[in-house]
Design goal:
Blueprint (H helix, E strand, L loop, with lengths): L26 H9 L4 H13 L6 H13 L3 H8 L7 H13 L3 H13 L8 H11 L3 H13 L6 H13 L3 H10 L5 H13 L3 H10 L5 H11 L4 H13 L6 H14 L2 H13 L6 H13 L3 H10 L5 H13 L3 H13 L6 H14 L2 H15 L5 H14 L2 H9 L7 H14 L2 H9 L10
Amino acid sequence: MVACLSYTPDPLPRTNPFPCSRLQFGSQEALLSLNKCTNFKHIKQIYAKIIRHGLSHDQLLIRKLLRLCSSYGKMDFATLVFHQIQGPLTFTWNLMIRYYTINGCSQQALLLFNLMLSQGFPPDKFTFPFVIKACGAASTIDLGKVVHGLAIKTGFIGDMFVLNTLMDLYFKCQKVDCGCKVFEKMRVRSVVSWTTKISGLVSCGELDVARGVFEQMPTKNVVSWTALINGYVRNQPEEAFELFWRMNIDNVRPNEFTLVSLLKACTEMESLNLGRWVHDFAHKNGFKLGVFLGTALIDMYSKCGSLEDARRVFDKMQLKSLATWNSMITSLGVHGCGEEAISLFVEMERANVQPDAITFVGLLCACVQTNNLEEGQRLFKYMGEHYGITPIPEHLTCMIELYNRAGMLDEVCILENAMPSEPNDYILSALLRASKVYGLVNMEKFLYRHAGKVDSSAV
């Protein structure tokens, strides 16, 4: 006799009995992870996870990854990621071309476009503006003309965005006639088209022609007004303000860049009162003290003789760019406040702002103004050893001036041997002073090779 056995199964556990098992990681989870990225190391970790989970085919996900790589300036890694894509869509090619260009890799952008065509991937109307901008950044007008021809061949030449970008390319390469021809052949012109032509003519020195085009514009916006105002800043700064009054009468509200142009006009006129008026206008009309406006105010106040106002603006700025720090350091140096300039540089380093060659031009100028050879030598050495900055002519000019004053002729000769093949007028003038005072034969030979490039009567 067999005994009857009863069996009641245990209920299924409500929690995962395998705590080490991995949660699902799909495209949505990957996108969320990328959105939370705070550093490049994190991006690389997420990409490794994307590969492990077989998500590298998701081009929406990969495009997000490429954008992040571009924002961190990591184009080598972006290139590696891009070339792992199987059959990238035209949109993905376009983005990669654009990211190369905005990261200063225009040649790579053009090579990628060539690869795109050779592999049979068709360009679209968005491809051409990105490639044309790359041509402009690389100053390759001949290739730009080839791309122009390809746009005609593929039927995209009628697109307004393509035409506006082409026009911009021709003007940037000083091909005024070509730029104007593109404009004239446009069937429909937007405000951007008109403004591109005005800006292009201004940049090519055709200010009167630009003014004529401006007066013909059916509709003007703040960008159009600002483009023309900016054209008058250097040669006719008073006219820049006349245009600004007209702009106000037409009820067109200026933007930050309009005010920056006006501040440059104040600098040209050396009018501190007018500069203060622009500053007051900005304050009363609700303009925030942003990086561009703040830096322009510092520059204007310094060049118009009010270092106190320049420093006050600097101290009020919550966000400061490298240009902001450079402007304030240079201003202090030019006004003979060498110790303050160097102290501000130390503060800049503490704020983790990476200096550039211009920063050290300002610092060395401060040393010249205060005749501080020891500090000048230290900074000149520190610039190369700590930051890897190669001396530019302005650095050499400052050091030659300091060595001249100290009678350190051997050091002057050493710098002479480190000269670029085509030294600028300031370097030649400094060397000529040393040659006249100390009768340096080698330096006279050096100057003889560059005869006619400096006016000895001005020394």
